[in-house]
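Title: Request for sanity check on Blue (type 1) copper domain-containing protein prediction

Description:
We are preparing a figure and want to confirm that the structure record we downloaded matches what your pipeline produces today. Could someone re-run it with the sequence below and paste the raw structure tokens into this thread? We only need the token string, no images.
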Amino acid sequence: MRKGTIGVALVTVAAVAAAPAVAAVTTTTKPRIEALGGASFVKNRYIQDKQRFNKDVYQLKSGTKIQLASKTEEEPHTVSVVNKSDLPKSIRDFGKCFGGGVCADLEKAHGAPKDGQGPPKKPLVNKGATGLDTRGDSIALAPGGKGSVILSAKKGSTLYLLCIIHPWMQAKITVK
Ligand SMILES: [Cu+2]
């Protein structure tokens, strides 16, 4: 984890040093949405869960192929498109999401096992056009899993992302 972070920092420094002073910042790195982090607890005190998406905001061009990767080892994740109003704002909202809200709906759409153990029957749920463009599009990522998806949403739109398993994992894509 720490090693990886340092690696990224070094790459960033190298890219800045190599770039001409007035050029727009460009990158050849493939667009990636990653699930990062892990969880720990202190007995009878608290649980701390640092699982998250690697960015809060992804600015990506319509038509881009997005690489998806889970860098966590313990639990699966989803990259799910929801409405802004679906995004939980409190712990109480998590309960609503799991109990009949968008988390429960998408869990069903994925064909997740009832006991929560094992992979879903449908790792990919697609609504609307092929790719990420509308509420209900959802990709399940196994621990350490990878995938890719085309950003099919139109330029100017915003997609709100949620992991339906860890509903504090929230991000958005602004489509250029
Ligand atoms: Cu997650």
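Thanks, this matches our download. The domain at 31-175 is CATH 2.60.40.420 (Immunoglobulin-like).
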